[in-house]
Amino acid sequence: MTGSVSAVDKSETRVRQMFGEISGRYDLMNHVLSGGTDYYWRWWTIRTVAPSGASPILDVCTGTGDLALAYWKRAKGAVSVVGTDFTPEMLRLAENKRDTRFGKQIASGAAPLTFIEADTQSLPLESDHFQIVSVAFGLRNVTDTMKGLNEMVRVCQPGGRVAVLEFSMPTNPLFGWIYKNYFRYVLPRIGQLFARNKQSAYEYLPQSVSQFPYGEALANLMRDAGLENVKYTPLTFGIATLYVGTKPTHVRTKTPVGN
Ligand SMILES: C[S@@+](CC[C@H](N)C(=O)[O-])C[C@H]1O[C@@H](n2cnc3c(N)ncnc32)[C@H](O)[C@@H]1O
Fold first, then answer.
1. Of 62, 97, 109, 163, which one has the greatest count of Cβ atoms within 10 A?
2. How far is the CA of 10 from the centre of ligand 1 (A)?
């Protein structure tokens, strides 16, 4: 997308406040504005980067927890899943969904599904621990992308996978034009109507997407963070892209002091 000249404000305070304000309507907005495609994108992610073995899974910037919940369900409650986010309002909604959907199974001995308040740039989690570290539509919002990616790689097991699901720009020119105009003119208006958010959350969305790397540029950032065999698949005409990389088996990371 062109036309955005000033850099979008992605300070932690602004991002946390914005998601706190729209949290109550976040899920509805997500499904309406994506026409339900978000379900498919998550399904594709858990199918492509499927759990195997008993090691835990981490979903960062988990928001209302949909990807964490999908992973827990996919692993049939046999693998622990942790979801982290720094907006407490989003996490409370994630916990409610967990309790409603899987509370009984967890109470009767299934693996835990835990939500922890944490900044992706400094995760209070041990290194080399998770078989999969995922993020859906979250990395774009993290103030320092490389710090976030480095932390995701740090906590991933050697040989484990890091999955990034993120918006991208369609490659087809006609579809790109439609998408650009939908994003710029339609989405902010519908979004504002629903979300009634003072900080223009749905103006933030197209701005943050237009200024975030995608395709080879984001794959290169993942390589810079130490991942190998990084591959990506555009989904739904390239509106979203799933990026997957593997942490090399020989790499072990020290847990930073204080984490
Ligand atoms: C667009 S939502 C995505 C939520 C969820 N993953 C999904 O797919 O619906 C982005 C989430 O990232 C979180 N977030 C942004 N920056 C963060 C950071 N530095 N640390 C932790 N969470 C962050 C926000 O609080 C918000 O819940």
1. 62
2. 12
- Nearest C-alpha neighbor of 70 from the set 30, 113, 28: 113
Task: Give the closest residue (by CA) to ligand 1 atom 10.
Answer: 138
CA of 174 to the centre of ligand 1 (A): 30
- Count of Cβ atoms closer than 10 Å to residue 15 Cβ: 23
Residues flanking ligand 1, CB < 6 Å: 12, 15-16, 19, 30, 61-63, 66-67, 85-87, 90, 119-121, 136-138, 141-142
| pTM (two decimals) | 0.93
CA distances from 108 to 47, 71, 76, 96 (A): 26, 19, 13, 18
The sheet with strand 228-235 has its strands ordered as: 113-117, 81-85, 57-60, 130-136, 156-167, 240-246, 228-235
Backbone dihedral angles phi then psi of residue 82, each to the nearest 5 degrees: -120, 135
How does pLDDT run across 205-257, given as a tens digit for each residue?
A: 778 888 899 999 999 999 999 999 999 999 999 999 999 999 999 876 766 65
Task: Look at the block and give the residue holding tokens 């998601």.
Answer: 19
For the residues 40-58, what does the mean pLDDT come to?
97
Burial track 137-164 (b if 16+ CB lie within 10 A, e otherwise): bbbbbbbebeebbebbbbbbbeebbbbb
Q: Give the C-alpha separation, 153 to 247, whole Å.
A: 7
Please identify which residue in the block is written with the tokens 């390589």: 223
Pick from 45, 113, 51: nearest CA to 82 = 113
Tokens of 101: 């959907």
